TrEMBL record:
<feature type="binding site">
    <location>
        <position position="143"/>
    </location>
    <ligand>
        <name>substrate</name>
    </ligand>
</feature>
<protein>
    <recommendedName>
        <fullName>4-hydroxythreonine-4-phosphate dehydrogenase</fullName>
        <ecNumber>1.1.1.262</ecNumber>
    </recommendedName>
</protein>
<keyword id="KW-0521">NADP</keyword>
<comment type="subunit">
    <text>Homodimer.</text>
</comment>
<keyword id="KW-0460">Magnesium</keyword>
<feature type="binding site">
    <location>
        <position position="289"/>
    </location>
    <ligand>
        <name>substrate</name>
    </ligand>
</feature>
<comment type="function">
    <text>Catalyzes the NAD(P)-dependent oxidation of 4-(phosphooxy)-L-threonine (HTP) into 2-amino-3-oxo-4-(phosphooxy)butyric acid which spontaneously decarboxylates to form 3-amino-2-oxopropyl phosphate (AHAP).</text>
</comment>
<keyword id="KW-0479">Metal-binding</keyword>
<dbReference type="InterPro" id="IPR005255">
    <property type="entry name" value="PdxA_fam"/>
</dbReference>
<keyword id="KW-0170">Cobalt</keyword>
<comment type="pathway">
    <text>Cofactor biosynthesis; pyridoxine 5'-phosphate biosynthesis; pyridoxine 5'-phosphate from D-erythrose 4-phosphate: step 4/5.</text>
</comment>
<keyword id="KW-0963">Cytoplasm</keyword>
<feature type="binding site">
    <location>
        <position position="172"/>
    </location>
    <ligand>
        <name>a divalent metal cation</name>
    </ligand>
</feature>
<dbReference type="InterPro" id="IPR037510">
    <property type="entry name" value="PdxA"/>
</dbReference>
<dbReference type="Pfam" id="PF04166">
    <property type="entry name" value="PdxA"/>
</dbReference>
<feature type="binding site">
    <location>
        <position position="142"/>
    </location>
    <ligand>
        <name>substrate</name>
    </ligand>
</feature>
<keyword id="KW-0664">Pyridoxine biosynthesis</keyword>
Amino acid sequence: MAQDLSRETPVIAITSGEPAGIGPDIILSALKEQSFDARLVVLADIRLMEERAQTLGVSANIIEVHQTVDVRSHTKGNIYVSPIALAEPSKAGELNVANAPYVLETLTQAGRGCLEKQYDAIVTPPVHKGILCETGVHFSGHTEFFQAQCQSPHVVMMLATEAMKVALVTTHLPLKDISEAITEEAIRLVTKALHLDLQEKFGIEKPRILVCGLNPHAGEDGHLGREEIETITPTLDALRQEGLDLIGPLPADTLFTPKYLNNADCALAMYHDQGLPVLKYSGFGNAVNITLGLPIIRTSVDHGTAIDLAGTGKANNGSLKVAIHHAINMANNTKKFSK
Ligand SMILES: NC(=O)C1=CN([C@@H]2O[C@H](COP(=O)(O)OP(=O)(O)OC[C@H]3O[C@@H](n4cnc5c(N)ncnc54)[C@H](O)[C@@H]3O)[C@@H](O)[C@H]2O)C=CC1
Ligand SMILES: NCC(=O)COP(=O)(O)O
């Protein structure tokens, strides 16, 4: 796509996600139900979007585009699609490994377009990690995919609802590898990236971050694990010397209570299933997943491909709407911050 330099309204790329999953469904319904203050470009197979719209009975105007200058501000039901061809026609609810390269291509083009400033942000509906891995490529998540594409030394996965933000020191790791991954360097890089992005992308001047311990009761003074004493506490102390407002390490089961959460901007968990179940319990369907620490803006939904619901009209599009709103706000904040 040709570059579009003279623009105030942000241009947001939305990938289709797994074509056999609910990605196309929630894009169609969200963009039909509501207008967004942005120029939205869906990176997808045109026939896939047309067929899914027909299956769902969504009367959308699907407009093929080849350059961002041709994309107007979003109005309900007008869906601009930058075409990327599927290898084989996709059936809702039926995974097909032949279409895995298509999914990766949508991500590659979105990331490249953002790095080249055609897009101000990327929003990603869910992909099926298992089917992508079946091609022989190890795909653990969008987070790691965009980290590699952007050559970012460290990224942070953060999920947010109206009520809380939860970020993670490690992302998609088997549980047995986590202790080893909780190093001084990892905590330092993640916490600093989180602090900076809370300022730049969320407009929080002095972010206060609650930090979880790794072990039950944050190690119980070393009786239930020593990572807090040997690694986490000294690293947080050093970061406090640099001016960061950090509380912890706190036992994760007490950190996630109103007394702490109401007086902080974000919680930092040590691993995926320490932090995310709490957030999903409190706001599944209305949360956004954001990758911090990238030179680009990327938001996503809080759920997976829900293959069982594809093409049925039962998929909830709430999280996608939130993800699009966050991408727009972050793009606008970033523009203000860089002026
Ligand atoms: N951002 C992403 O790309 C993500 C991708 N995944 C991938 O999705 C695949 C399936 O993962 P699961 O653990 O089964 O989680 P899932 O979120 O796809 O499904 C869990 C349950 O929630 C329901 N559900 C999910 N989204 C829904 C929605 N929008 N509206 C109504 N109901 C919904 C499903 O029907 C299912 O019963 C895996 O390959 C996983 O890696 C999972 C999370 C995020
Ligand atoms: N639980 C969130 C998740 O796994 C999404 O990961 P990613 O694809 O955004 O990296």
